[in-house]
Amino acid sequence: MKRFASDLLTVAWGVVQDALHRKVFYAVLAFTAILILLVPMLPSAEVGVQLDLAREAALGLVSIMAFVLAVILASTILPGEMGKRTIYNALSRPVSRKRYFLGKYLGILAVLAASLLVAYGVVLALVGVKFGVFSPGLAKALLAIFLEGALLAAVAMLASVHLSPVVCVLLTGLFYVVCHVKGDFLYRTMTDPGHPAVLRGLAGLFYYLLPNLERLNINETVAHGERVFRVGAPELLLLLGLAAAFAAVFLSLGAFLLERKDL
Amino acid sequence: MDTVLRVEDLHKSYPSRWGRPPRVALRGLELEVPRGGVVGLLGPNGAGKTTTLKAVMGLVRPDRGRISLFGSQGSDPRARSRVGFLPEQPYFELYLTPRKILRYYGRLSGMSEESIKARSAHLLNLVGLGEVGDLTMEKFSKGMLQRVGLAQALLAEPELLILDEPSTGLDPLGKIEVRDLLNDLRRSGVTVLLSSHQLSEIEEICDRVAVISEGRNVASGALDELLRSRDEFLVRLAAPPPAGREPDLPPPAAWADDRTGVVVPREALGTVLRRLLDAGLEVEGVGPRRMSLEEFFLERVGRSGGDGK
User: Fold this and answer.
1) Does residue A166 have a pLDDT over 90?
2) From edge to edge, which strands make up the β-sheet containing B38-42?
3) What is the ipTM for the molecules in this complex?
């Protein structure tokens, strides 16, 4: 068990170091921070909801940053290692491919968590300085963003075992869009008797197979102070369970494919 | 004989795209590496050397066959804890320093921080990188990266060292250093399996060779035995014959380069011996001729070189 944890941490730390040496990491972070700080310059809505709108816009920017970082890292790490053949040096050690794969994923999660912490600090600073309000409750939205980023990273890592980084990014983007519209578009297609049976069947298949990522989007609720719907511990645990279950499925599949891949 | 690595009936093919037939890399390869000594895996480009080593290290999945590493299934990661591996043209994350990369691999090998530190310092000096151990590898030459590769392969004090083309990218001095290093390792009881298409390297370093071509064994065994010709003899003379007093030799018997010996086919041995003695030359001995590895290789693999096609 100690060896297992040590291997995971070693591989994960390698990912963190790798991310810290990528210019794109700093560029995305800096760009997001600048945009968040520019949020108060957006055309103001009526007085009284300015704070809510600023928080919502900031959380939206943080979401984009998190998803971009998670998908870029997850889509490029394995193909990069396979392309440069640095993976040979690591996998010729007594480390199983499953462990290696999981370690890489944990590293991405660590980078994602650290980036979200930085972004959280920037959003808190903005809200505190501009509106004189301390909004620790935004952490709930950041947790949901983290969970969605983690899920997207798992999808991108699964795809990256056999596909190029560009295709991984495109596929994960498609996954993101489909999983966000599934509750509406897929459900309507599936239940509308006017559509052909094959289309309804496909819509139904995707509806039940794919996670509903809209459930992880609580930015609006949290930004508006949870006045309509309160996000408590049970809701957060449910979101955690949803993300963890789907991530586990995608990671298991990815590890299975990597195990069988010729390097 | 204690065997550290045994490969039996190994088959491997790589799928091709667009409906083309798969590329067959190994067709029933057999390989045995006894404990101690240096074994050379020799073959032309595309013969299947790298695929064999990658299969042993679990980097490619054989279609069928068996790999036994220290008595365990080759695919078992634990079996690799006793093996060091240098891939062909090793590459590293260049923003790291050699010392940091060794630390990373040391941790993955389950070594303690103290032993990683001590081994890294020792190995960086051994491969001639002691002075640059704390510099990032961005400006390292191919030869320097090869040296880092050697250091990482030796890090966990392996019992079996597997080297894929270890001299690639090294300058002549580097090649000599690698040869000396391998000789030192042999003396300390480490078993080495190295793949190369450089015949001189194999001949200088290896005790045993396995020659493969088109994914199959064409010869394997102790180098001395393999190179001992069964059809030709070398008649050694005490001194070269005085100029103008050389006896006529029946073709295809021929004088050796230094003229202190005659290379004779088996059927002409009696005639040649008589003529040498009749000419008053002192025969010191007669024995099977030792072929050069190049001759042996060409005889077994052919000039086409296989190329796996």
Assistant:
1) yes
2) B83-86, B160-164, B191-196, B38-42, B208-213, B216-222
3) 0.86
